[in-house]
Automatic annotation (TrEMBL):
SMART domains: HTH_ARAC
Top-level taxon: Bacteria
MF terms in GO: DNA-binding transcription factor activity; sequence-specific DNA binding
Keyword set, alphabetical order: DNA-binding, Transcription, Transcription regulation
Coiled-coil ranges (or none): none
Keyword Transcription regulation: yes
Name this protein carries in UniProt: AraC family transcriptional regulator
Pfam families given in the database record: AraC_binding, HTH_18
Domain HTH araC/xylS-type: 169-269
Presence of keyword Transmembrane helix: no
Taxonomy of the source species: Bacteria, Bacillati, Bacillota, Bacilli, Bacillales
């Protein structure tokens, strides 16, 4: 998935939330304290926040002042073609290493970032396949720009605020590799991380706001949507087994719970959308 909102001014009720996709948040203007986990960031225009999503977060704004921000939500899977190129730069490292990180951009850096955001917006407005492709390329350029700014902090060993935070990072790293393993269970996590099941469950919920297996199931369902998009001929059963579900009924029940449609209904809707776009010739489909 890929969603871009440029210079959004919408008013909303601030609420703590988390999600399985990554987020790039840029603060244009206003008065805002951004709460991410146990950290509070007092934002200034030019602040860019990288978020891996699962930590509970919420902006607290002053409604008396215009609040303008640009937000990009994306699943790293859309970047696979670029990450697999020869000599590819590991542009996802800032998200993977820092999880949540603020860059305070000023001067030329601020101007360059805003130029890239505007370029993405202009391509988005085209509403065709070429525009969508060029917008994604501009986003890849943005990630290279961010990676370049993060080279020094990436080279320094990160200090964790607590042993608990480091343990949760270890859990997250293991889950990123094993979330589709049908033999994944608390006993295995306990054995591989050398921490008790009860402690792992407790600290993960405290830091991320969700249980370990809520996170795993969200990841699996999100990956299923990507599989259906990239490989429309794949059967629901095949996708279910690929993502570690032992029973198709369990997969279908969770998919409907998270998406609002059964896997079969979701595939039919995507097929219908593709046909509609093809007939209309407007090429608005984009991930």
């Amino acid at each position: 998935m890929f969603e871009y909102s440029y210079r959004s001014t919408g008013v909303f009720e601030p609420v703590f939330h988390s999600h399985t996709f990554y987020e790039v948040y840029y603060f244009h203007e206003g008065k805002c304290n951004y709460l991410i986990g146990d950290q509070i960031y007092n934002l200034a225009p030019g602040d860019l926040i990288l978020m891996y999503g699962m930590t509970l977060h919420c902006p607290k704004i002053d409604p008396a002042v215009p609040y303008i921000r640009s937000i990009i939500h994306f699943d790293p899977a859309i970047l696979r073609p670029y990450l697999e190129l020869p000599h590819a730069v590991p542009i996802m490292q800032p998200f993977e290493r820092f999880k949540n990180y603020r860059l305070s951009l000023r001067g030329d850096d601020k101007e360059e970032l805003e130029r890239i955001l505007l370029t993405m917006h202009r391509y988005q407005q085209r509403g065709d396949d070429v525009g969508a492709g060029r917008m994604l390329l501009a986003f890849v350029d943005l990630l290279h720009f961010v990676y370049d700014l993060c080279l020094q902090p990436l080279s320094e060993q990160r200090e964790f605020s607590s042993d608990k935070e480091k343990s949760v990072q270890d859990v997250m790293a293991l889950l990123e590799d094993r979330y589709a393993d049908e033999e994944l269970n608390m006993e295995r996590l306990q054995r591989e991380l050398h921490l008790s099941k009860s402690y792992l469950a407790k600290i993960f919920k405290e830091v991320t706001g969700v249980t370990i297996f809520e996170y795993v199931y969200r990841k699996r369902i999100n990956e299923a949507k990507i599989q259906f998009l990239l490989y429309p001929s794949l059967a629901v059963t095949e996708v279910s087994f690929r993502l570690g579900f032992k029973h198709l009924a369990h997969f279908s029940r969770l998919f409907k719970q998270h998406v609002g449609l059964t896997p079969e209904q979701y595939k039919k809707q995507m097929k219908s959308d593709r046909l509609t776009l093809h007939k209309a010739g407007d090429g608005n489909e984009f991930i």
